[in-house]
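Two quick folds needed for the group meeting slides. Do the first one here.
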Amino acid sequence: MCVMTFGAACSPCAADYGKKVNALKHQDDRRTTARAVKAILDHHYVDDFVDSFCSEEEAISISQEARADWDAGFELRNFTSNASKVVDALNGTDVSRPIDNKEDFVGERVLGLFWQSSSDCFGFKLKFHNVGEAVVKEKDVLLKENS
């Protein structure tokens, strides 16, 4: 297989395997820090990279290393951060766009969550299927009866 097929049932597993092989290949490289290898192994899911750093300088350094170590055909791009210095250094993108038709929420989708960079908070949206509106709005309570 020469190309990653997205959408197939095996795609996440194949991408994860490729990611691990690629990271471990750089494990003993003197130009790569253990933290950059850890970033690839532990802070990536398929093509998403989500990590947290103690300083802007560390975020830039580790992200640049992780980007340079991806020689398995993946290209890390569309970086964003809650620090403008990091966004600029990584040629990132501004996340000032409304999400999910909510005018009061401006943020980014990350691994199925919503991330608002200005407050550095994650959130999610609940959907209640087959549950009455009265129950969702707490006007009615469902009780389990013993018989």
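Then this one, please, same format:
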Amino acid sequence: MQISSLFSIFIFFSSSLTYASVIHDFAPTPEPSSSAVAFLPPEREPFPDDGFGFASTDYSPPAPSRSSKRPSPLPAPALAPAGGPSPAAVGGTSGSVDEDSGESSSRPPPVESEETVRWCTVRGEMEDCRLLLNLLSQSSNYSWTCVIRDSTNECLDSIRKGEADIINLEAGSAFTAFLNYSMKAISNEVYCNRAESYNAVAVVHRKSCEAKRDLNLMDYKGHRSCHGGYSSASGWTYPIDHIKKLVGSDKMDDVDIVANFFSKVCAPSDSDLGGQAICSGCRDKNENVTNCHRDSLYYGDTGAFRCLMEGLGDVAFVRGDTALLYSMDGPYNQSWSKRSVRDFMYLCPQGSCREINGYPGECSFGTVPANVIMASNSIRNNKRLHILERLANSSWIEAAYTERISSIHTVSPSTQEFTWIKTLTRSYLGQSASISQSIQHLKTQKVEGSASSANSFPDQDSMLWMLLSAALVCCFYNV
């Protein structure tokens, strides 16, 4: 083949490359701007005091305006057999059930009642919610009602739509409600010794600590882990933030970090956000099936401790008092509580173990702010004031203890009272919000990195080599 022919082929491919570069679908993707990263909204100046102790605005994004015509509510989760009525809300005082036939489009939109406080809770916690709200409704000019949804996110969406008023959340979920749903923290749980926080800890078997005196978290690389819930503060964001620093990786998101550190992971959630990567360790020994949802046996701090106790994991990430409360000799022992608290120890992040006494101190991943009552930014002041005053009356908590209400998720079992939050939500969440934000930033980086790789265009040197290779092939077949 003549040199002139080879040169002609090269010119042809070069022209094709120039033409292709101007076609939209093949054009190089510009680098993502830094504004695309999801960070907290800028701080705003608070409005004057609203009349009962704190400013009426927050750092959270502005609440969506409500039109006179509200969207129809989400269909209520079906709690009855197919074809039967589906309970959507349980009355706190009368115990009546609002029945939804499923034909929500033919029903008028809900009208917010100033005389009704609607507490949103997740299916499976309905009975706890009903009993607690019966107590809250006593000596009250408001009725308290439970609104039942399938997941925490559905509850948050219902509050945004005006179908519910409040929800009780741990710090990790509270940050999501604050950042993505324009909600604010109005009241928080108070624990023993008037504590308004708890510690995020790792609990391990005592025999592991006795086998190695300087045991540390790196010794559990390649082992099995139990987490109180995906994205929860004590069960996920605090320990994962620590592991991220141990492995020194900023190129993986939280799920990748955990999946690469542990051999099996059990971190149930409202939805399969992490897929099999966070559910591989939630396999029930008897049923031999993966159970990784909110109604799992291994959901929450109690579920993570059960996961450890039943031998599905080697380390459990929970709040500091979990082992004391739910071990065989604890006040809230369960049917699965087959072992004493003395069979377990705290694993300190800096190394070594410590006896479990409920006060781990420096043997923890950090202090987590107490669970909070979250409400919409647009909730009316008189209703919010009533909610705060009623929650602050500790007599209903005392009655709940008397009636032995389990309240594992609706209200923390160690709660002794509620108090008003007189600071802005971002300030209340403090370090917990910063850690949650850093975890979310990892996800954003991964998404942007994947998008950049998928849309990347070969550089000039690569294209030149490709063209020369093609020309040589043509020469070979035409000699």
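Slide caption for protein two: The chain has two domains: 86-191+370-429, 197-368.
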